[in-house]
Amino acid sequence: MKVRKMATVTLLGMSACTLAACGNNNSQASSGKTSLNLMETDVVSSLDTSVTASIPQWDTLVQTMAGLYRSDKNDQPVPAVATSYHKSSDGKTYTFNLRHNAKWSNGDTVTAQDFVTAWRKGVSPKAMSGYNYIFSNIKNADQISQGKKAVSSLGVKAVGKYKLVVQLENPEPTFIDKMVMPAFYPQNTRLVKKYDAKYGTAAKYTAFDGAFKVTKWTNTSEKWTAVKNPYYYAKSAVKLQKLNYQVVKDSNTAHQLFQQGSSDDAVVSGTTAQGLQNNKNLYHLYRSGNNFVNLNMAKGAVLANKQLRQALYLAVNRTQLSKKVLADGSKPSYTFSAPNAAKDPASGKDFAAAAQPKETYSVAKAKKLWQAGLKQLGKSKVELTLVASDTTTDKNVSEFLQSQLESKLPGLKVTVKNLPSKSAYNLVANGKYDLYLSLWLNDYADPYSELQTLEKTNSHNYGKYTSAAYNNELRQVRKNAATRSVYFSHLLKAQEQMNQDYPVLPLYTMVEDHLVNSNLKGVLWHKVGMVDYTRAYFK
């Protein structure tokens, strides 16, 4: 998932006591309380997963919706609305049996048709979430997204109220892993028909089948609440009565709210996080995501030259970046595949470690490659434009990259453009960049989640990476991988091909620094997907 970073502000004259977090929020006063105060970095513009796909939206949906499966404490899928499933001998048909006691927050029964309704909306060419591709491999999904077939032809059907049958075009060993994603959550069919485009735009136009139900929310709200859902099938496991959300875009403000006891889980970043590394309430959540530089490889672009791209990769001291510049618990990253997604069945290693190239930093080799690349282009110097957001963290990383590359690669000038996220994205979408500071958070426990974003036809392939070998390995993942071992062997070959082509510059792994109320227990800190508070409680 493409993630928007929290804006951070450096305050000159900030007191040493504030920066070092003197004192803590009143944890004793929170003992036994039943309301949890949370923050988001932006508004939830819709609760309809076919309309948008954002971190605030998915955060909220994980607490308020139930799909076929949910993630357990080990990021493994366990039954939710589905009680079991049967897979056909050819691996292409899944039959899900749904629980009979799952209900919507308005009392309606959750039926198989509710999943059909939601999935058809999600795969439709009219869907604006950008997640049509996640349904790929379900029968006819790609043709539907391209407008070549009707949404009714999607390979998913309801057999009575409590049986959902899904037909795939090819066996997919990790299909169940994807079922934890909000993109596959159901939608109340009756309300979708009744409200049409209004569905998901306000609490009164939406129903929820999860642990909580959203109240007092519209798509412009900067504060909203979610209260315990009395119709939730597992309501006895839910200890909290209410979740209180507010939008907090500034890291220092998040810290202050935590100090005041107004936030029980405050996400901090940048200089604020750096000053809190020894705070006893700080929790490092290492997400399965990478911060990286996307390279513009379009025809005629300077970085269409492979030797220049390899030189850039080898010139960056990622250890210095993570330890000295970020200093927030971030770790160096050397592959596009992020850690914590899955283990490689062949080696037993984390997939990212199994796929890591042997050579990751060499200034001497970088200089030789750079000069060779310039010679191939008939140039003695080049200027590259680095586009990034205007958050403090991205500004600091941009400045670091500019210094690293200009000082180590003779003849290179890097022009940095730090812009609001939307403006930065518009430049990138129109190909008006050379380097783009970006990040990706895995949607489910599978390296394919991110590797597919650099496939030739994927909408996230901004840099126009077009390796035939890479595309073929991903094609084999989809069409000729009946077992996990074969599936992951093709993923590994795809990453190894990327290691030879350098379409991106991995920088550091995604870490979230959370200030957490010491009495808050039972939170599922997922490395893949969203944090789950549905079983949380105060000690």
How many domains, in number, for the residues? 2
CATH architecture of the largest domain: 3-Layer(aba) Sandwich
Number of helices: 18
Spell out the CATH superfamily of the largest domain.
Answer: Periplasmic binding protein-like II
Intertermini distance: 33 Å
Q: Please give the share of residues in helix.
A: 25-40%
Low-pLDDT segments: 4-23
Mean pLDDT: 92
Number of beta-strand segments? 18
Strand content: 15-25%
**What's the alpha carbon Rg, rounded to whole Å?**
24 Å
The CATH topology of the largest domain is given as D-Maltodextrin-Binding Protein, domain 2
Descriptive report:
This protein has 539 residues and is α+β, with helices and mostly antiparallel strands. The chain folds into two domains: 35-247 and 517-538, D-Maltodextrin-Binding Protein, domain 2 (3-Layer(aba) Sandwich), CATH 3.40.190; 288-512, Dipeptide-binding Protein, domain 3, CATH 3.10.105. The protein is 29% helix and 20% strand. It has 18 helices and 18 strands. It has helices at residues 16-19, 27-30, 55-64, 112-123, 141-145, 175-178, 189-195, 251-259, 270-274, 306-315, 318-326, 351-354, 363-377, 392-408, 421-429, 448-451, 468-479, 484-501; strands at 35-40, 69-71, 77-79, 82-87, 93-98, 156-158, 163-167, 212-215, 223-228, 242-247, 265-268, 282-295, 382-389, 412-419, 435-441, 504-516, 520-521, 537-538. The strands form five sheets. A six-stranded mixed sheet has the order 11-16-12-15-13-14, sandwiched between helices. The chain has a four-stranded mixed sheet with strand order 1-10-9-8, with helices on one face. Strands 4-5-7-6 form a four-stranded antiparallel sheet, covered by helices on one side. Strand 6 (156-158) and strand 7 form a beta hairpin. The longest helix has 18 residues, at 484-501. The two termini are 33 Å apart. Belongs to the bacterial solute-binding protein 5 family. It is a lipid-anchor. GO terms for molecular function: peptide transmembrane transporter activity. It is found in: Cell membrane.
